[in-house]
Amino acid sequence: YRESDFTFVPCSGLTGENLIEPSSEEKLCSWYSGPYLVQVIDSFKPPERPVAKPFRLCVGDVFKGTGSGPCVSGRIEAGTVANGDKVLLMPAGEQGTVKGITVAETPTQHAFAGDQVTLTLAGVDVMKVVTGSFLCDPAVPIRVTSKFQARVVVFNIDIPITRGFPVVLHYQSMSEQASIHKLISQLHKTTGEVVRNKPRCLTRNSSGMVEIKVSRPICVELYKEFKELGRVTLRSGGSTVAAGVITAIT
Length: 250
What we know:
This protein has two helices and 17 strands. By secondary structure, it is mostly beta strands. It has three domains: 3-43, no CATH class; 56-136, Elongation Factor Tu (Ef-tu), domain 3; 144-249, Elongation Factor Tu (Ef-tu), domain 3.
């Protein structure tokens, strides 16, 4: 992040000072003449929704609806979906049809990237719909792999990360047993330049390129193509040890 992206606003939730109108408090006005809190919030640039990209939804919950098919809920990370659309369940590889869409408990005909939705499906075996699986566009399916490369930042850990280091991979609503299959390079934390190829380990507060091997095939996307789906977190022993972005799928 850049410091220029931050705005500091002195305010008080207790007295309401400088929240919805300029402050009249003499002590505050003597050193602060900037905007009040609501002004700053109103100036935020709304995030762009990747509606032009292929449809992607990570299943966060599965339940039996009033109809014959299963219902799945989750956030649409990219693309759009409409009633009657064909969707592909991955990594199971089953194709189904959207029979109902609900957004904020209201039935609708369409939903878009950024919406938290519930979809009613037909033609899909409910036993194959699990948390962490993906619904996607059958014409442009999400990638499935058990190994990928990631650029990671290592946090304040006590034990260095070495080849074979066991971790729990957290990706969207999924958590999966994994390991550090290769240490490709150590990177300069600020510039991203390669400091050392094939390092023996990655220590606390360092950065590096690694290859991660998952215990079974999972759905992933590259960060450069789908920022919403290109981030991973690594945990070990109940603590977060590293986080990063997916750079290559092997």
